[in-house]
Amino acid sequence: MMLRFLRQPSGRLASIFAALLCAMTAVMGSYVYSACQKASADYTTLISDIVLAQQATPQLRTALEEGRRLPSSEQIEYIDYFISLSKQHLNNIKSSIERHRYLISDVEYLNNHFSELNSRLSDLNLKAQKAQQRPELVDPLQRVAMDIGGAQSWLYNQLLEEVRAISVQQRFVMQRLSIAVSVLLALMVSAAITLCLAVIYLHRQRNVMQQLMLTDELTGLYNRRHLVNVASAALTQAQRDNGSLSLMLLDIDHFKQVNDTYGHPTGDEVLRQISKLLRKLSRPSDTLARIGGEEFCLLMPNTTTHDALQVADRLRREIEVNTLSGIDLLANPTISIGVTTCHGGSLTFEQLYSYADKALYQAKALGRNRAESQLPPTEPTPYKNPQAYAHLLISEPIDS
C-alpha cells in the first residue's frame, strides 16, 4: 500500500514535502541545540578569575616597587610571591577558558600571550634563584617583573573585552533562539500534520482497495469473493445452531438481447437499476452479490425453503412490474430464480451453489420469469405436494 501511494504524484509530493520538513526540522533542531548551549554558557567563574587577577596585578607591582627599599633577600621573596601568584592566576584563567568551548575560538589569538607569560615567569624564577647568590641581579629582576605585570594587565583587559562581547552576543542569540524555537515548533507541527494526513490517506486508500476487492464496480453489490467468505461463515454458524441456510440464484431473462438491441451502456444501466431494486427488497440479514454478467446471488441465513420461495416470488413480481427509469424498453425485464436450502450446515458452498444453479436452469427451461427449488436429497420438501405449492406461488410465465 505504501509503495502504491508513493508511485502516485500526490504520494510523491507528500513524501518530498515530508522529507523537506524533516530535513528542515533536523537543521533547525541542531541550530536550536547549539544556540541553547551557547546562550546557557555561564562565564561567572571566568570573569571572577580575570577580575581577581586584574586586582592582584597592580598590588603586586606596588609591592615590588616598595620592596626596592628592602634588603635583597626580601626583594627576592616578593619576586617569588609575584611569580607564584601570577602563574596561579594564569592557570586558573586558562582552565576556565578551556571549559567554555564556544569561547576558545574567540580568544585563540591570545594563546601565544599565555605561553609567553608563562615562559617569562619561569625564566624570572630561574633568575631569582641566581640572584640569591648575586645581589646585583635583583634590580634587573625588579624591572623584568614590572614588565611582566604590564603584559598581564594587557592580557586580562583583552580577555574581559572578549567576554563582554560574547555576553552581548548571548543576548542576540537568545532573541534568535526564541524565533528559532517558534519556527522549529511550526515545522514539527507541519511535519506531524503532513504525516497524519498521509496516514489518513493511506487508511482511506486501504479501505477503498478493500472495498474494491469485495464489491462489484458496476453495481456496488458484493462480488463472488465476498459471497464465498460470508457463505463459509454462515455455513459454520448454521452447523453450530443446527439452522437452515438458503441460497438463491437470480438471472435476468434474455439479457443478451438487451445488450444487442439497446447497446451495452443501456445494459449496464439495467443492471444498476435492478441491483438497486434487489438490494432494496432484500432483508438486512441477507447478503446480495453479483456473481456474473447478469447473475446475482442472495444468501439467506436462518431461512427455510418455504420462506426462501416466498422471498423469491416477491422479488420476481417486483422486478416484473417495475418500470426502469430513463430506459425505453419494449417490456420490463424479468428474472428467473433458483432456490436451494441446507440444514445444519451439511453442505459446502460449492454444493449449495450447484443445487441452486440446477434450480435456476430448471426455471429457465420451464419458460423463465419463475422460481424453482432444487433441494439436496437429505432435505425435506416444503410441502407434501411441491408442484401444487409452486403453482400457487408462481404466476404464468411471461416470455420476455
From TrEMBL:
Keywords: Membrane, Transmembrane, Transmembrane helix
GO terms for MF: diguanylate cyclase activity
One matching Pfam family: GGDEF
Transmembrane segments: 177-202
SUPFAM superfamilies: Nucleotide cyclase
Residues in the signal sequence: none
Listed cofactors: Mg(2+)
Catalyzed chemical reaction(s): 2 GTP = 3',3'-c-di-GMP + 2 diphosphate
Domain GGDEF: 243-376
EC annotation from Swiss-Prot or TrEMBL: 2.7.7.65
Alphabetical list of NCBIfam families matching this protein: GGDEF
Protein name: diguanylate cyclase
Species in which this protein is naturally found: Vreelandella boliviensis LC1
Lineage of producing organism: Bacteria, Pseudomonadati, Pseudomonadota, Gammaproteobacteria, Oceanospirillales
